[in-house]
Design goal:
By secondary structure, the chain is an all-alpha fold. The chain contains three helices and no strands. Helix 1 packs antiparallel against helix 2.
């Protein structure tokens, strides 16, 4: 698990100072959001916590919210 922290810290050290120096705030925001999601999923994987399936979320979106169902025959 400590290796995971080192890898993510290394990625931050390489990427973030350049984004701040060039004042690319939008890119830094998008990078941070994806980075936090990736870190959370990686940490869940390392700690053997079940990772939720994205298909259940898509199914809820398509069937329950949009009302689109696949024809049954």
């Amino acid at each position: 698990m400590i290796f995971l922290f080192f890898i993510y810290a290394f990625i931050i050290i390489i990427n973030v100072p350049g984004l701040i120096k060039r004042k690319e705030w939008r890119e830094l925001t998008v990078f941070s959001v994806f980075y936090i999601i990736a870190f959370a999923l990686s940490l869940m994987y390392v700690l053997d916590i079940p990772i939720p399936s994205p298909m259940k979320g898509l199914q809820h979106l398509i069937v329950d919210i949009f009302g689109i169902e696949y024809p049954q025959g």
